[in-house]
Amino acid sequence: MGRIRILSDTVANKIAAGEVVERPASVVKELLENSLDAGASSVRIEIESGGRKLIRITDDGYGMLADDAMLAFERHATSKLSEVKDLDSIGTLGFRGEALPSIAAVSRLTLETRSKEESTGARVEIAGGRMLKCEEAALASGTVVTVRDLFFNVPARKKFLRTEQTELAHIATLATHYSLAHPDKTFQLLHGASELLHVTPVAELRDRVYQVFGGQTLGELVDLGIRERDLQIAGVEGVETVSFFLRGFVSRPQVQKLNRNSIFAFVNGRLIKDRMLLHALSAAYHNLMPPSCYPFALLFLDCDAGEVDVNVHPSKTEVRFRHGSFVHDFVRDSIRAVLMESRPAPVFPLPAHAQPAASLPYSEFTQRIENQDFGPLPPAVPPDDEELPEVAIERRPANPRRSDFSAEPPGIPPAATREDRPPDNRPISSAPVGGPLPDSHGPLAQGVLLDEQQNLTVLRDLRPLGQIHDSFIIAVGRDGLWIIDQHVAHERILFERILRERAMGRVEMQQLLLPIVIEVTAGQQIEYARIADELNSMGFETEPFGNRTVAIKAAPAGVGTAEIEKILYEVLETSEREFRRASLDDLRRGIAASIACRAAIKINTRLDQNKMEWLLDALAGTEYPMSCPHGRPIALKYSMRDILKGFHRI
Ligand code: ADP
Ligand code: MG
Questions:
Q1: Which protein residues are within 6 Å of ligand 1, measured from CB?
Q2: Is the sign of the CA dihedral 333, 335, 338, 343 positive or negative?
Q3: What pLDDT is recorded for position 428?
Q4: Exposed/middle/buried for residue 23 (C-beta within 10 Å: 0-12, 13-18, 19+)
Q5: What are phi and psi for residue 119, nearest 5 degrees?
Q6: Where are the CATH 3.30.565.10 domain residues in the chain?
Q7: Burial (CB count <10 Å: 0-12, 13-18, 19+), residue 505
Q8: What is the DSSP letter of 51?
Q9: What is the pTM of this model?
Q10: Is-contact 447 391, C-beta < 8 A?
Q11: 3-state secondary structure 219-234
Q12: Out of 198-202, 336-340, 427-431, least confident range
């Protein structure tokens, strides 16, 4: 008795209908999912001519019983589902029972499979949906599906295929994604004679990320650990608890991508595209990253199968959550909390020679596939933990100064000019000068490396030395050299202070001697009416003043008169553009960011020692000292390790 059944019409009719075979990558996806569902621990994908000529997937999964080999090609034939209620909690990647027949209908397909329970296997050959052969065969256990001449009988579809490289890039991306979801399995992707991906089992997701993306990318990521949030649902049988788990990696806010290509989201092991999850991710980075940029993210959300409906779209890449807004907030809060906790400091790039030789950034990896330039691959071994000498070190007492600084330093000049640069976080090069030194391990290296702190908590103990161009504060700490952008640092301090004061309902204000009257457009007037209350609770006192004019009688403290008008225009303009759809919270943050930017110390401003110390201390006291409310980095660190590496001392 086989395992595969034909679904009844009642069940079949409830399955999201539609074509799944659009391009070679869709064939790879379906076959790969079948292999994973069959418990394979190793999957090998062979491709020729971008998948047009050949796609072969070999797995070591549990195989099919001989009786099932033919049945698998019937429509709605599956071993993964039998009743309608099974659709409510799908635990496998497949469930539609349509992939094999659909692929066989548009190609020349050979299935070779043997279950461990049987001594002989079966070989089935089908071309354009017609069964050519079905015979017993002596085979290793597991399954091999070979798909040749895709779309040979559907010329219209064939015409729509893109170039070989493009189709191949899609396949490579897919294989990479699935390899990330299964670090314990082997994945191999071959295009003709070239090996595009080969990863061997590793214990941790971190190791797989290293194998796939290389050490440089891994260094830019923050580990989410395992986050959990429970939802209590009142049901007929009392209160039920549903747990949601989130793990994975997200990038430091300084890693800013221009598109969403570096965002990978898996729900219960299934790669999905979901607007809600994307939104939660952007919300987590709100005010940490410019709105038009995206982070790198590798998210694994796991929950009870009953909490997600995967039967939404035939390609199974979309899902619907039963408790969408709960999941949204859970994901947003978890990522935000990790970013806050870890306070990762942006670091200078290591000199080129210090990079792991074989590592290749992911973008470059896919680029090479696009360009058919198959150079060295990402390394297939996990990173060695860098060995650090174990030496006891003496800790200096924390800097005793500045315990009484809680207010603004006296005499921060009001803003005179606006010094906003476009986001440009290209750090200063730290390329080494001169050749390597043979005697590299001095006591210096041993002591400081142990104490290296990777986060911004150390800001409090930094000693400012001076400014570069009256704009960037140079400071030294035990763990290296720091450069702090004074404008954005102050911006972050003010931003958080304003929001805090707003939350307590007392934003500090200054009355203006003469009201400022500004002219607004009709659109701005409508916008003004909508946000006037919020503006007024953020420290402004404004009121409509006749037709198309607004009078400002008071403004938040610390803002120069010349800036007040600019803030208002800026808020109205962004409000028209962005905030209309945004929440009150976003509007509030937007206004606070505008005020903070205008009130903050400008670049090209000389600061005395006291002010620099105050600034660093206040920055250390912020919740999020890494980036300004517009997402630019605040501080760059040249760690002791980088310095020693630069001088070839380690
Ligand atoms: P589905 O995956 O939705 O069940 P498919 O058409 O993809 O539908 O596959 C039909 C059935 O064939 C599966 O339910 C499974 O029992 C069997 N099958 C397909 N591929 C494999 C494989 N690689 N190893 C073992 N069984 C497989
Ligand atoms: Mg399937």
A1: 3-4, 30, 34-35, 38, 59, 61-64, 72, 77-80, 94-100, 143
A2: negative
A3: 31
A4: buried
A5: -85, -25
A6: 9-201
A7: exposed
A8: G
A9: 0.64
A10: yes
A11: HCEEECCCEEEEEEEE
A12: 427-431
Ligand 1 atom having least distance to the Cα of 143? 23
By most ligand atoms within 8 Å of CB, the mutation choice from 82, 100, 109 for ligand 1 is 100
Print burial letters for 428-442: b (CB count within 10 Å at least 16), e (below 16).
eebeeeeeeeeeeee
> Which ligand places an atom closest to the C-alpha of 78?
1
Task: Give residue 75 CA to ligand 2 midpoint distance, Å.
Answer: 12
pLDDT in tens, 296-323: 999 999 999 889 988 777 777 788 999 9
Tell me what the pLDDT averaged over the chain comes to: 79
* Class of the domain covering 9-201: alpha beta
Selected residue with higher pLDDT from 388 and 144: 144
CATH number attached to the domain at 208-342: 3.30.230.10
Question: Which ligand is located closest to the Cα atom of residue 65?
Answer: 1
- Compute, in angstroms, the gap from residue 78 CA to the centroid of ligand 1: 6
Q: Phi/psi of residue 149, each to 5°?
A: 50, 60
CATH architecture of 395-650: 2-Layer Sandwich (3.30)
Burial class (CB in 10 A: 0-12, 13-18, 19+), 402: middle
| Structural tokens at position 627 | 């980036």
Q: Residues 593-614: pLDDT tens digits?
A: 999 999 999 999 999 999 999 9
- Residue 476 Cα, ligand 1 centroid: separation in angstroms? 61
Angstrom CA distances, 562 to 524, 548, 566, 593, 598, stand at 20, 21, 7, 17, 10
Q: Distance, CA 439 to ligand 2 centroid (Å)?
A: 60
Q: What is the dihedral of CA 165, 168, 173, 174, to 10 degrees?
A: 160
Q: Start-end ranges of CATH 3.30.230.10 in the chain?
A: 208-342
Structure tokens at 540: 């402004």
Q: Which of 239, 226, 234 lies closest to 302 in space, CA to CA?
A: 226
Beta-strand ranges (E) seen in 310-412 are: 320-321
Residue ranges, CATH 3.30.1370.100, the chain: 395-650
